[in-house]
UniProtKB/TrEMBL annotation:
The active site is at 40, 83. The gene is Immp1l. This is Mitochondrial inner membrane protease subunit. The keyword Membrane applies. NCBIfam families: sigpep_I_bact. SUPFAM superfamilies: LexA/Signal peptidase. It comes from Melanocharis versteri. The lineage of its organism: Eukaryota, Metazoa, Chordata, Craniata, Vertebrata. One of its GO terms (molecular function) is serine-type endopeptidase activity. It is found in: Mitochondrion inner membrane. Residues 16-97, 103-146 form the Peptidase S26 domain. It is an enzyme of class 3 (hydrolase). Belongs to the peptidase S26 family. IMP1 subfamily. It comes from the Eukaryota. One of its GO terms (biological process) is protein processing involved in protein targeting to mitochondrion.
Amino acid sequence: MLRNALGKTFRFLGYTVQYGCIAHCAFEYLGGIVVCSGPSMEPTIQNSDIVFSENLSRHFYCIRKGDIVIVKSPNDPRSNICKRVIGLEGDKVCTSNPSDFLKSHSYVPKGHVWLEGDNLRNSTDSRCYGPVPYGLIRGRICLKIWPLNDFGFLRASPNGHRFLDD
């Protein structure tokens, strides 16, 4: 009887480890569901919207300008942020706020991206903390799941004029 109980316990532990490994690989390499909070991505993503973030793009270096990404916060590594990619390495970006009279520009260094929220007046982004290392990107948001009346692919940036083509 003890042998039977130990056998069942070890089998259960074995299955738990196996399924745990499969779940880890799925969430790490394929993607997952994310609940977004804060006003920085309004009107594209509202507070408490639920989105699907796929992780393959970051592994294959397929992140492009205009993509919305989940990134480890440069200010607090325990939290993630959701921002739009405005510039990739080598791109010229506008580093000033929209309300600034004189506009300043800079180039994104190698291995970095320039991130901004869609709500430029209420977003802490690369204009505050500078370019973000590509390695901090966790995934690319490709689909809004909730609310259901807004289900589907995400719309283009309301700040398309911030993309420079120099």
